[in-house]
Design a protein that fits this description.
Blueprint (H helix, E strand, L loop, with lengths): L7 E8 L5 H11 L5 E6 L7 H6 L11 E4 L8 H13 L7 E5 L6 H6 L4 H4 L2 E11 H5 L6 H9 L10 H11 L3 E5 L6 H14 L5 E4 L7 H4 L28 E8 L5 H15 L1 E9 L5 E8 L2 E9 L8 E8 L4 H9 L1
Parallel strand pairs: 1-4, 1-5, 2-3, 2-4, 5-6, 6-7
Antiparallel strand pairs: 8-12, 9-10, 9-12, 10-11
Helix pairs in contact: 11-12
Bound molecules: guanosine-5'-triphosphate.
Guanosine-5'-triphosphate binds next to α1, β9 and β10.
Amino acid sequence: MSVNFDRVPCTVVTGFLGAGKTTLIRNLIEKLDGKRLAIIVNEFGDVGIDGEVLKGCGIESCPEDNIIELANGCICCTVADDFVPAIDQILSLEPRVDHILIETSGLALPKPLVQAFQWPAVKARVTVDAVIAVVDGVALAEGRVADDHHALEAQRSQDDSIDHDDPIEEVFEDQIACADMIVLTKTDLLDQASLAAAKGRIQAHLPRAVKIVPAANGAVDPSVLIGLGLAVEDDIENRKTHHDDELDHDHDDFDSFVIDLATVTDPEALAARISATAEAENVLRIKGFIDVANKPMRLQVQAVGSRVNHYFDRAWAQGETRQSRLVVIGEKGIDRAAIEKMLAA
Ligand SMILES: Nc1nc2c(ncn2[C@@H]2O[C@H](COP(=O)(O)OP(=O)(O)OP(=O)(O)O)[C@@H](O)[C@H]2O)c(=O)[nH]1
């Protein structure tokens, strides 16, 4: 029997909350059908929604056992405890996987994660093929992430400390700073002028020449993103981020909780409530599954800011508890009681 000692390539998909990481990965899984894939899905909230969405793909080359969920925290903070065992588990899979995809949480900093690939036990077996940063075209076009003003000011003052203390922008900029490729999502919702504005905002924040790939609903040719062979673990120290000097960082700037709701009778009314709540209470992200009365199907809800998508994604399984449960993420200090009240109204 011949044993293949080649290192398994791993693509790290980063990007701010709701930018479209899961949508992109889902699309990649479908297009890479034939390649044996394993996926690590990391989420900030306590309840794994993205893993559940990806498991629903039903693609033979990426069975459910190959999808490992690391919920309840950020992969960048739990590298030793969670990430290394997950890699061990993946590398012991039979048949051997051809490629690993990691979806980081929307608040994770990619640099500490990539640095973990320098550990001898990992480096001998896995290499970072590329870091892909997924950016929300609509949010960028509307100027909701990455304020040009700061970038311009930093350039003008020739100050290479780009610290400006907005937690959302810092996370966003750190993700961009580590990227080998940018996927600009939601282009189906952008006209030419908005697309140009979104691209301009990214370009203002790119520390080096990195390609921007536009995508609608995650549709990108996988050969553009996979198989780049960049061994990013060898270059990651050169990528300057806001958190370089921190031995350890926490996510104190953000808050997440789970809200259980009663069975819903009117999905449209719920979507309107979610949108109004996100707007009024400054919520960044709401996602989850809802039990709709008299429907055999489960309702999936995805809100990014006040933009809400909802659709029936699959039938409730036999014996599965039908429940309505939403994960809410926002900046520290969001008013849980007010949010619960508005959502339940
Ligand atoms: N119209 C449109 N919607 C998109 C596109 N990409 C993602 N979405 C929607 O945006 C919402 C968030 O997408 P996800 O793929 O879950 O985003 P994510 O980055 O994985 O989110 P987190 O893991 O919570 O950070 C969902 O409702 C998606 O359907 C796109 O290209 N076009």
